[in-house]
């Protein structure tokens, strides 16, 4: 608990660059949240504190500083990705869509790998309005056959993949199962991406620099994997199941780094932060999320920043875990190489990797 508190009070991205870069992006994203905070300041002074100019300005500065802190690290890289192919799962909305938009602006050819093709096509039109090459391909990570069909299409079209972003996810939902009978969070967040990544590796070993980025979460610190029951069928708890799937993401990344040692591919797991998106739809009423809780969260563009950083400027690190555009602190259990190896072997059997 002390480690968690210390990381909140002194985040690893707190540096000179934090105070000097990214303010344009911050203010463009924060109009609503800053307005709410300033409104609270004025209400406080109107009802209680009185309107002393110095005090009002000081509290406005504190309000803006608070939002800047909550927005976290911002990627300021200007790196171009001209001609590179980027595959992003779950890119029809939220963090994934903002990541796809950024990749397109950098000149990449982006493939939106999504379960809901209709929503993905709408996202494609929105992204292409700003320029860029975008295509939509069907991918349902809760179906291993769908994963195989998607990968088969990429291979048959002989597409060289430069960046794979395992972005899609399910969060703290009621008990459900994938097509193959896996618990939906472990099946989608880990096993689906595990199979997808392994099937696409031949398309990434082309000599040019390549990257694999898997979205994890700070929630991984609560992960307690039972390697004999990854499905959590014995006693399902939606929060614990989510934490388990997120530590699996970090452990997968660690073992993947070993598998790819000496190749052209770098790997990363990412904590995007507490983000206002549809992912938390099972946690609270939509009204609370849309108008109240959102002022304490990152916007989707802010939430995409660490993914973008890992797709552009970051270098693989032994922690295998990044947060707010900097190397993060992974939990000790997420750095257990023995567990990572065991999880890999179990995952291979569950998805029938040789099929």
At a glance:
The protein is 48% helix and 11% strand. By secondary structure, it is an alpha/beta fold.
Description of the molecule:
The protein has two domains: 30-71; 80-351, Rossmann fold. Strands 3-2-1-4-5-6-7-8 form an eight-stranded mixed β-sheet, sandwiched between helices. Helix 10 crosses helix 14 (337-351). The mean pLDDT is 90. It has helices at 2-9, 16-20, 23-29, 31-49, 53-71, 94-105, 117-128, 144-156, 184-204, 238-259, 286-291, 300-303, 305-312, 337-351; strands at residues 85-89, 109-114, 133-138, 163-166, 210-215, 265-271, 321-323, 326-327. It starts with a helix and ends with a helix. The protein is an alpha/beta fold and 355 residues long. Keywords: Membrane, Oxidoreductase, Transmembrane, Transmembrane helix.
- Radius of gyration, in angstroms, nearest whole number: 21 Å
Mean pLDDT, to the nearest integer, reads 90
CATH superfamily of the largest domain: NAD(P)-binding Rossmann-like Domain
Poorly predicted runs of 5 or more residues: none
Number of E-state strands:
8
How many distinct helices? 14
Q: In percent, how helical is the residue content?
A: 40-55%
Query: From the coordinates shown, what is the CATH architecture of the largest domain?
Result: 3-Layer(aba) Sandwich
Q: How much beta, percentage-wise?
A: 5-15%
| First-to-last CA distance | 43 Å
Work out the count of structural domains.
2
Overall morphology: globular
Structural class: alpha/beta
Major β-sheet profile = 8 strands, mixed
At the fold tier of CATH, the topology name of the largest domain is: Rossmann fold
Question: Strand order within the widest sheet?
Answer: 3-2-1-4-5-6-7-8
What is the H-and-E element order? HHHHHEHEHEHEHEHEHHHEEH
Give the CATH class of the largest domain: Alpha Beta
What is the oligomeric state here? single chain
Family: Belongs to the short-chain dehydrogenases/reductases (SDR) family.
Protein name: Retinol dehydrogenase 12-like
Keywords: Membrane, Oxidoreductase, Transmembrane, Transmembrane helix
Pfam families: adh_short
């Amino acid at each position: 608990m002390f480690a968690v508190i210390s990381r909140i009070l002194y985040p690893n991205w707190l540096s000179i660059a934090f105070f000097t870069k990214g303010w344009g992006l911050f203010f463009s994203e924060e109009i609503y949240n800053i307005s709410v905070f300033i409104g609270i300041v004025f209400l406080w002074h109107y009802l209680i504190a009185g309107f002393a100019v110095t005090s009002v300005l000081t509290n406005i500065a504190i309000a803006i500083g608070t939002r800047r802190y909550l927005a976290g690290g911002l990627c300021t890289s200007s790196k171009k990705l001209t001609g590179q192919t980027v595959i992003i799962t779950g890119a029809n909305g939220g963090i994934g869509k903002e990541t796809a938009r950024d990749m397109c602006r950098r000149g990449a050819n982006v493939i939106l790998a999504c379960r809901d093709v209709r929503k993905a096509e709408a996202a494609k039109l929105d992204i292409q309005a700003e320029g860029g090459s975008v295509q939509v391909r069907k991918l349902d990570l809760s179906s291993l056959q769908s994963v195989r069909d998607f990968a088969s299409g990429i291979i048959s079209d002989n597409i060289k993949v430069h960046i794979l972003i395992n972005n899609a996810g399910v969060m703290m939902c009621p008990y459900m199962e994938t097509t193959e009978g896996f618990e939906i969070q472990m099946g989608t967040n880990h096993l689906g991406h595990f199979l997808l990544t392994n099937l696409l590796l031949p398309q990434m070993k082309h000599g040019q620099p390549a990257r694999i980025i898997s979205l994890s979460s700070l929630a991984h610190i609560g992960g307690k994997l039972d390697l004999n029951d990854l499905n959590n069928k014995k006693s399902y708890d939606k929060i614990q199941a989510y934490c388990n799937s997120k530590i699996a993401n970090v452990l997968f990344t660690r073992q993947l780094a070993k598998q790819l040692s000496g190749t052209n591919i770098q790997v990363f797991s990412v904590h995007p932060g507490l983000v206002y998106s549809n992912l938390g739809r099972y946690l609270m009423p939509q009204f609370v999320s849309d108008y109240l809780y959102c002022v304490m969260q990152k916007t989707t563009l802010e939430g995409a920043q660490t993914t973008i950083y890992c797709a552009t400027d970051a270098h693989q690190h032994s922690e295998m875990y990044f947060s707010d555009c900097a190397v993060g602190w992974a939990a000790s259990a997420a750095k257990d190489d023995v567990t990572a190896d065991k999880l890999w072997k179990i995952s291979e059997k569950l998805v029938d990797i040789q099929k």
